[in-house]
Amino acid sequence: MDADELPLIADSVAFVKGLKKPTVADVLRSAQAQGLVAIQPRCGVGGHEQMRALLLALEEGARPDILSLTIDSYTRLNQFDMALSALCNAPEELNGYPLVTHGWRRGRDLNQAISVPLEVRHGSPLPRRLFETAVASGITSFEGGGISYNLPYCKDVPLVDSLNAYAEIDARCGELAQAGVVVDRELFGSLTGVLVPPSVSLAISVLEAVMAAHAGVACISIAYPQSGNMVQDVAALRAIRSLAVRYLPPSVDVYPVLHEFMGVFPKSRARAEQLIFAGALTARLGGAAKVVTKTIQEGYGIPDASANIHGMRLARVANAPFIHSIRLDESALDEEQYWIEREVDEIVGPLLEAIDLPLAISSAFEDGSLDVPFSASRHARSSVMPCRDRAGAVRYLDAGGLPFSEDVRRRNRSLLEDRWLTADDHERMQLLMADINYFLEPPGEQEFDFVPAVVESATQGSDPEETYVA
Amino acid sequence: MKNEYCPDRRTVILCVAASDSHVVANHIIAYLLRSHGFNVVNLGACTTVSDICDALLRWPEAEAVLVGSLNGHARQDLADLPEAKDRGAITCPVIVGGNLSVAVDSDISKDAALYALGVDYILRDPSMIPAVLDRLRVQRDDDLAGSPASPRIEEPSNGC
Q: Looking at the Swiss-Prot or TrEMBL record, what is one Pfam family this protein matches (chain A) (predicted)?
């Protein structure tokens, strides 16, 4: 559609300045200063007019602080001809907005249509063209990292390749910051979204953040996925601050971000709402600058606009003044935070001494001293097996080749229920599946008082007030 | 591949079918088999029959191929299996497991179709895998010891 040349960097900088709205970095700074949590949905449809209508509906319906362009999977894999073909023949079948195919002029059109800044959310291991199109569109936040957007999303892209691609992007962010526009880089600590131990999530974000800061990135968001145990989650969000102080230069702004639960979502409206609100509350109590929301349709597929608006409004309740007085057990938080940071230190410590960090990371994944559970990629071993402890917090059933001290291993073991020791194969399978489906209600309890709309992009722009009158 | 390879251990090839990207059960099965002392060559999501043949060239000692299929396309994804078996590229038993069809009531016909493709064993409970591997190995050793014709592998009796 739009294969012409990208504008010069000065032109894109002037465009951002001319938008007369805050950048994502401005929004995060302001939220943090007020002790509030900025609200952001995930959203993306194929057609341009449909995308604009969706953004306007979400803005009108829930007043989010940041809006998203979620990118389709063809574009994520750089299959631009496939994206073009889908766009011409059946745009409603795309699972996101093909920004590269639409081109930067349409990206600017979306940006001008709304009053809040945009972030590109994708899942691409090699996103050079997507990034350049996003920058030319005046988009001031770009998600992903060379590890976190590789291992969960593709089968056979070498880590060195994706790390190099993100190093280029981070360097471009450095140039843009010099030119006067800060592009926030959100690191995808949610990884595979299934029982990700906090120290795995944070260790990988620390490594990506160190590389980003080195390349000149001025604003880094470290995203952590809600596990569902509030003490563990708040401790993890707090740990992001300490880890930033320890590992990153003071010149970089670092913001903790919470991704509402990424795993198997409950199907009933009541349970889904509980989980969404618990996530937003966790974000507020943990001092997150931003929460990326989920919806009551999560267990059924891609949400429509109404459900998305409802999810954001529900999350916003956690910004109410009265929440400020809620206190968790500080000694439990301190203990959990201590161990999370210690585990992260033990994972990243040896690597950060390496001269060539991308190479060291790639080798560490090969030998298992860096690992993520449930990876889609053959470049991670996934020898790590997580499970939930008595309180529902995510622990290591098996830490695989992670270089943990005996102290860390002992504490992990001590928190696991004895049943893990005595279970036979069949029971272990059942226990692991039960932990993965922790929030999924038993089949008999899945009746819901909300009939999810059939997922069609045509419904995404509908008037939210029909369903959710405040 | 992903795991530490020990020459003195039994080896299996594990994968998810060609059109399927569900890796959670795949990783849990790999974990269980490794805890039983197997070398697990895990080819992961979206593995074609041709990928399996390539892996068997590299790990000819593999005693079985385990294919997971959760999206209901097991039959289509294994369409190349008869050809691979005919030309001798796959000689060890092929075990298929998972949600093998989208419609629950058509399980039996789907099973028949998979056996017709040359699948040796169909499993719905992954915790049965080690026991089935043991049984298949005993069977193979008997065959090598000169038993008459190789018996057709029997259906699992308890519906597993």
A: Met_asp_mut_E
- Output b/e per residue, A109-120; b: 16+ Cβ within 10 A: bbbeebebbbbb
Chain A residues with CB under 8 Å of B6 CB are none
Contact residues, chain A, for B130 at CB < 8 Å: 425
User: pLDDT (tens digit, 0 to 9) for every residue of chain A, 470 residues total?
Assistant: 445 689 999 999 999 999 999 999 999 999 999 999 999 999 999 999 999 999 999 999 999 999 999 999 999 999 999 999 999 999 998 999 999 999 999 999 999 999 999 999 999 999 999 999 999 999 999 999 999 999 998 899 999 999 999 999 999 999 999 999 999 999 999 999 999 999 999 999 999 999 999 999 999 999 999 999 999 999 999 999 999 999 999 999 999 999 999 999 999 999 999 999 999 999 999 999 999 999 999 988 889 999 999 999 999 999 999 998 999 999 999 999 999 999 999 999 999 999 999 999 999 999 999 999 999 999 999 999 999 999 999 999 999 999 999 999 999 999 998 888 889 888 998 899 999 999 998 877 766 555 554 444 434 444 433 333 22
Distance CA A24, CA A140 (A): 6
**Residue ranges of domains in chain A:** 9-325
Give the closest-approach CA distance of B22 to chain A in angstroms: 9
Choose among A155, A374, A383: nearest Cβ to B24: A374
Give whole-number Cα distances, A296 to A266, A268, A271, A309, A433, in Å.
Answer: 8, 8, 9, 10, 22
User: Dmax of chain B from CA atoms?
Assistant: 43
Q: Using the beta-carbon criterion (under 8 Å), do A374 and B31 form an inter-chain contact?
A: no
Q: Report d(CA A143, CA A24) in Å as an integer.
A: 12
Residue A385 in contact with partner chain B when CB distance is under 8 A: yes
Sign of CA dihedral B42, B43, B46, B51: negative
Nearest by CB to residue A378, choosing from B30, B44, B125, is: B44
Which of A101, A49, A39 minimizes the C-alpha distance to A460? A49
How is domain A9-325 classified at the architecture level of CATH? Alpha-Beta Barrel (3.20)
Domain B11-123 class, CATH top level: alpha beta
Instruction: Give the phi and the psi of residue B95 in degrees, each rounded to 5.
Output: -110, 130
DSSP-derived 3-state class of residue A395: strand
ipTM of this model? 0.81
The residues, ordered by sequence, that sit 6+ positions from A153 with a Cβ below 8 Å of its Cβ are A76, A123, A124, A125, A376
Report the residue from B2, B28, B130 with minimal CB separation from A378: B2
Among chain A residues, CA nearest to B125: A426
Spans of all domains in chain B: 11-123
